Every structure is written in structure tokens, then in C-alpha cells.
Amino acid sequence: MAAEIPADIPFVGEAAPAYGVATQVAPLVRRVVARNPSPYTYWGTVTYIVGRGRVAVIDPGPDLPEHVDALMAALEGERVSHILVTHAHRDHSPAAAPLKARTGATTCGFGPHRDDRLGPAVEEGADPDFAPDERLADGDAIAGEGWTIEAVHTPGHTSNHLCFALVEERALFSGDHVMAWSTSVISPPDGDMGAYMASLDKLLGRDDRVLWPAHGPAVRDPKPFVRAFIAHRRAREAEIMTCLREGRTRIPEMVAAIYTDVPRQLHPAAARSVLAHLVHMVETGRVRCAGPPDEAGRYSAAPDAVGNT
User: Fold this and answer.
1) What's CA 220's distance to the chain center, in Å?
2) CATH architecture group of domain 23-229
3) Spatial distance between the Cα atoms of 45 and 81, rounded to a whole number of angstroms
4) 144-155, pLDDT tens digit by residue?
């Protein structure tokens, strides 16, 4: 799920895809795009097929019969051993159930969405029905014919977000953690800006040659791109601090001042992102809130707050 398209990140777009067509994008990787375009999914969810013969499917996508049929057509004559889900949002995980029913594959993920932290308005995009057959922790691996996939826990967009590393190609299926076309929504309570920033730092410590996101095209030079994401988030927190010091103490006032170049229909998502930053800034002692930090809160800069670390 994307948030915005700021100008300070070298984003990459792509032409509208041919829906339902399996396209070979790397020696071990094919992709099929679901027809669920939106301001938050770009052209739609990208489902990846890894390997030949005995294969894994990553992010089966929304439960659209035409998309599941397209996947089955692409998989004709092959055996699906694993269905891997980066996180339990409705544009990523619901098709796991019908695909499992038709292939007998094992579904894998970090775990279900954290229902104990849900609020109906906040997490309307969650898929509460997804529960993986096999839970994967950071560093766990599965293997097929000529391929090895390792789980990389990257909480932030959601607490159960995983990326999947294809060892043989030094490729990382990055889900919604890092995308080439836009930033990602970090929406509390399950979205966590502190965890997200730590997960971005985690990617800088890796040696991936390419990122394959769940929406849009590949990121071909990951480290500079991830550094730009980190710099953008830090700049956003500096803008929030400026708002606070200028007397803008509530989130709608901050969104109006900061997101002047973002369409108003995306301001609700921007408000969630600002809230995520504020929660993180409260946790790190740079910002104060009279009560628990939420969308209705009144915020102030801590007297001794310096910079945006």
C-alpha cells in the first residue's frame, strides 16, 4: 500500500501491464499482475513465481477469480510447493486460500495480522482470515529445484511483514516495504515507524542486487534507493518538528502544511503517516502529547528536542 510520491526519491514507474500474463523477468522469476489498480496499489498486485517445475508463489494477491485462473494457467505442468505471503493485507494474501485449494501447496508467512491491535477504521485493509500453515521467522529458509528462499523479517508497514531473499539471484522480494514507484503507508497501531526505520537500516546491511516489490517495477540499485527513503523519512520528521515549533499542534494542520503537493484524496493516508512519525517521535522523547498519541492528540516539541534523530 503506497502513501505518496515525494520528489526527493528517484522513483521509477512502468507502463500499464498486460494483466494475467506471466512475464519472465529474471532467470528464476516470473511475474503476473492482478487487475486491482488503485492509488495505493499502482497497476495492481504483482505475484511472483520462483523456479521451474517445483515452484514457489510469492504474494498470491487479492481473491480475484481471473487472477487465480491466470496463475493456474502460468503454472500448468508445474508443482507449487509453497505459497509465500509478505503480509496479511487484502491485496496480498486472500488468493492464498483458493490457490492452496487448487494446488495443495503449503502457505507460509510470519503469522496472521495482529488482531489484538486492530481498529476497524485503521486496519480496513487487513486480511483477518489469513493464517499461514507454516510460520517463518527471520532467517528461516525453504528450498526447491535450483532455488533457495530465506525469510527476512521487516516489520514497519505491518508487524508481520516479511521480505523473501532469493539466494541464487541475490534478489529480495520486498513486498510493500520498499517499492520503486512510491513510499509505503505506515499506519498505527500495527504500522510502526520506529520498526520501519530499523527495517530500512536492515536492508542497508544486505547485499541484494535487485528488489522485486509487490507493486510496480524493480528497484535495480537498492542501497542508494533505500538511503533516499531513510533521508525522506528523516526530512518528514524535521518538517513535523518545524510545524510544532510554529504552533501547528494537530495532525490536520500539519498535513495541510506539509503535503501541499499531494492530492487531497490522499490526505487521510498522509495523516496516518504523520501519526506514525509522531508516535515514533513521542517514543524517542522529541515530542510530547498530553495523552496517548492518536489522530485527535495535541502535540508539542519537547523543550530539549534537537534535530530529527
Assistant:
1) 17
2) 4-Layer Sandwich (3.60)
3) 21
4) 999 999 999 999
